[in-house]
Amino acid sequence: MKMKSLGVLALTVMAGAMSSAFAQSAAPAMTDAEKEQAKKIYFERCAGCHGVLRKGATGKNLEPHWTKKDASGKVTEGGTLKLGQNRLEKIIAFGTDGGMVNFDDILTKQEINLMSRYIQNVPDVPPEYSLKETMDSWKLIVPVEKRPTKQMNKINLENIFSVTLRDTGEVALIDGDTKEIRSIVKTGYAVHISRLSASGRYVYVIGRDGRLSLIDLWMEKPAVVAELKIGFDARSVDTSKFKGFEDKYAIAGSYWPPQFVIMDGETLKPRKVVSTRGMTVDGEYHPEPRVASIVSSFIKPEWVVNIKETGQILLVDYSDIENLKTTTIASAKFLHDGGWDASKRYFLVAANASNKIAAVDTKEGKLAALVDVAKIPHPGRGANFVHPQYGPVWATGHLGADVVTLISTPSDDPKFAKYKEYNWKVVQEIKHVPGNLFVKTHPVSKHFWADAPQNPDKDLAESVAVWDMADLSKPKAILNVAKDSGLPPTKAVKRAVHPEYSKDGKEVWISLWGGKTDQSAIVVYDDTTLKVKKVITDPKMITPTGKFNVYNTQHDIY
Ligand code: DHE
């Protein structure tokens, strides 16, 4: 009887599914060549925000059930208007108020038409990637015993900047003292970030194609000594920084497949691959929970690994990687980037599409707070300073709102005890502009910097704002970095992005991120006078974005 009713139920479900399938219109036709072209564009331009399976994260869900109009004339799905070809073409070309950027200056009309058709078709599921395949990709270019035993160059390594040259898939190693480019190193596609080993000797560079490159700064001319493909789509990497584990391990997070890889720090030999698939904080299974930011603790042999779609924060204990212990902390969905508070006990991470900042207490291994902030927080690593009225604060900017938010953070220092009542509260919102990606300050500085490269206004996107932290009510200084660079004006925006301090905290470097064929530059400001000190430019300086000062990155100073 039970079997029969289950059978009837199965038939009913199947019949329902078939009739709803009949109600669906066919997806727009595409040739194999068009599909291949669209797949490539989707990976390069869309997957970062919408996900490979198009389930949505920072960007909206793009599955056919709401990108494609029904033949039956049904126009909504869960209250949301179904899109269809014309509407999709408009959104891709001109963007939306919800934060989708316009692509009419990046894609041709034919490509916009192609992408609109592509996303009405069922998403392709890319292949998985095993430990064996990871191992097969491993290239040990210079074995440890063939590497120098001491520094072979005369560069002040602590003040080197590893600069992402995004569109050439390279990093430029620039001498912070002389401002000379010491080496340009080939890395992964659309290279994303650099991180430092605990000793400061090795730079780890991750490309969006999952290629991880290990650069040895001790070589006469710093070069790549090992490479590993950790996945097909990646954004994050860090190393083991706890005492006794310096330079021993590295960890890299993959967007696709959703997993992370633990490697030997000096060779990148893969040791373990760990899947991040599982349940969201709402208790739903998610097939694509991507690894967002990763940071290494200084107080325990642990990495903080933030899983975007599930909102789970993992504390991965690397003291015994054969018997890996992980603490899973539920926070809020769509975790992205973040950084330490000043004490380096709390990690604050943006749950960007939830408009929240999650703070993890890494000493106790639990969530310390979930703080509501304005639309789409994007801190980069955030910035720490002592507010004149509220004591220690950590700051985040926003992509979708015109404020920088200051959150009070706890401190064991008795001189800050009087600020305890403010802890984990938003104590101030400073007026900025939307489209901010990165904020920065430095322990010796009196200034606080914020960019706005995603602002639709050209002047704002090409400028940065600077506040005096002693008196935040004073008008901010606006520095037009594009004009200050002296480069010839271009119609295309030269986005001023990612302020980064020199080791001594006296200079701030800003990238001017122009088009692939435009001349780009890094503009170096004196942090005290806010005057230009130097414009670093070179025909090889193409699309510079993130800059990672060795000392500041090694010690997480921001
Ligand atoms: Fe990033 C950090 C993901 C687009 C420059 N970016 C991060 C981190 C993540 C991330 C998860 C945190 C890494 C960590 O700390 O371990 N970035 C993504 C995306 O998914 C996204 C939105 C879209 C994509 O398709 O990749 C994206 N990022 C960009 C850019 O377009 C930027 C502005 C230019 C570029 O070079 O790609 C960019 N992201 C950066 C930088 C950092 C970063 C410079 C590190 C900030 C720091 O100071 O540490």
Please, what is the CATH homologous superfamily of the domain at 2-118? Cytochrome c-like domain
Instruction: Bin the strand percentage.
Output: 35-45%
CATH architecture of the domain at 2-118: Orthogonal Bundle
Query: Can you list the ligands bound to this structure?
Result: heme D
The Rg value, from CA coordinates, equals 24 Å
Strand order of the largest sheet: 3-10-9-8-7
N-to-C CA distance: 67 Å
CATH fold label of the domain at 2-118:
Cytochrome Bc1 Complex, Chain D, domain 2
Which residues sit in consecutive blocks of at least 5 with pLDDT less than 50? 1-23
Global mean pLDDT: 93
Overview of this protein structure:
The protein is of the alpha+beta class and 558 residues long. The protein has a domain at 2-118: Cytochrome Bc1 Complex, Chain D, domain 2 (Orthogonal Bundle). The strands form ten sheets. It has a five-stranded antiparallel β-sheet. Strands 6-5-4-37 form a four-stranded antiparallel β-sheet. Strand 22 and strand 23 form a beta hairpin. Helix 2 packs across helix 5 (109-118) and helix 4 (84-94) crosses helix 5. Residues 1-23 have low confidence and may be disordered. Bound molecules: heme D.
What layout of secondary structure does this protein have?
Blueprint: H1 2-23, H2 32-50, H3 64-67, E1 76-77, E2 80-81, H4 84-94, H5 109-118, H6 131-136, E3 139-140, E4 160-165, E5 170-175, E6 181-186, E7 193-196, E8 202-206, E9 211-216, E10 223-229, E11 233-239, E12 249-256, E13 259-264, E14 270-275, E15 278-279, E16 285-286, E17 291-296, E18 302-307, E19 312-317, E20 325-330, E21 335-340, E22 346-351, E23 356-361, E24 366-372, E25 377-387, E26 391-398, E27 403-408, E28 426-431, E29 439-440, E30 447-451, H7 458-461, E31 463-468, E32 477-480, H8 481-485, E33 495-501, E34 507-513, E35 521-526, E36 532-536, E37 544-549, H9 550-554
Antiparallel strand pairs: 1-2, 3-10, 4-5, 4-37, 5-6, 7-8, 8-9, 9-10, 11-12, 12-13, 13-14, 15-16, 17-18, 18-19, 19-20, 21-22, 22-23, 23-24, 25-26, 26-27, 27-28, 29-30, 30-31, 31-32, 33-34, 34-35, 35-36
This protein binds heme D.
Residues 48-49, 164, 166, 192-193, 208, 235-236, 292-294, 336-337, 380-381, 437, 497-498, 545-546 line the site of heme D (DHE).
